[in-house]
C-alpha cells in the first residue's frame, strides 16, 4: 500500500522515474488479487504511456484484465483511468471513452470530487470522436462547478 501511495504521488508530481520504481517494487511484493495491485498497475501503465512505451503498458493492462476488472474494488477507478490513457494512446478512443464513462458512473454513486475531474478528461476525448454536444455539456458543467468553488 505504501509503494502504491508513493508511486501515485510521484506520478502526480511528474516524477516518472520515482513513480516507476515504486510501482514496480510494489508489484513485486504484492499478490495479483491484493487490492493495492490495481493502484500499482495504474501508475505503472501511466508511466509507460507517458514515456511512449505503449507495448509495456498494454502488457500490464492485459495482466490485470486476465484477472478481471468488472468487480467493484478499491483503486478500480485508478486502473480505468490508466487504461483509458493507454487505449487512447493506442488509437482505441471509443474504448477509452467507455472506460471513462464507466469510471464516471462509479464515482457518481456517491458524488465525489473525482467525478468532476473525470468530466474534464472525458470531454476532449468525446470531442475527438465528434460528440461535440456531449463534450460541450460536460465543459459547461465543469465551468459551473469551477465558478461555484
Q: Summarize this, please?
A:
The protein is mainly alpha-helical and 149 residues long. It is built from eight helices and no strands. The mean pLDDT is 81.
Protein architecture, described:
79% of the residues lie in helices and 0% in strands. The chain is globular. The chain is mostly helical. α2 runs antiparallel to α3, α3 packs antiparallel against α4 and α5 runs antiparallel to α6 (93-108). The model has no long low-confidence stretch (mean pLDDT 81). The longest helix is centred in the last third of the chain and has 17 residues, at 132-148. The protein has helices at 2-12, 16-29, 36-50, 54-67, 76-89, 93-108, 113-128, 132-148.
Question: Mean pLDDT score, rounded?
Answer: 81
Number of strands: 0
The DSSP helix count reads 8
Q: Let me know the largest β-sheet.
A: none
Order of helices and strands: HHHHHHHH
Unreliable residue runs: none
The CA-CA distance between the termini, in Å, is 32 Å
